[in-house]
Amino acid sequence: MTLGVAIYYKIDPKIFYHLIYTESKFYNFALSPSKAKGLGQIKESTAFYIHQKHKPGKLYFPMYNLKLSAKYILYLQERFQGNWTLVLAAYNWGEYNVAQRIKGMSIDPHADYRYKFKDIQETYDYINKIIPPAKKA
User: Fold this and answer.
1) Which of 13, 29, 116, 118 has the most CB atoms in a 10 Å sphere around its CB?
2) 4: domain CATH number?
3) How far is 25 from 3, CA to CA, in rounded Å?
4) Which residues in the chain land under pLDDT 70?
């Protein structure tokens, strides 16, 4: 189901799979201390932001949650010009926080910006779990 949603929304299946695993370990009833719910750990407020017709309680339905997660990733990809390290940082730490951190910066879609979050340990570790750093020769 996870890979099918990734392919349908044209999101890198490996990244989407690792994101969902990192968020919930594939437990569709996952609930975070901040009230993020389901497979993709989406908050009700984010769900309404992504899908205006969202109905509270639906975030525990696996397919619904995966679709919202994918749509949110697509939104973040557009917002951060396809740069995966920024997209993942925003998914974890918040879009506003990331936007403030990179304010005035020109975004290279292929650059590795994880160093920008080294002081935000949870976000830095989150990015590394989903996209491991390149091995040095």
Assistant:
1) 116
2) 1.10.530.10
3) 14
4) 135-137
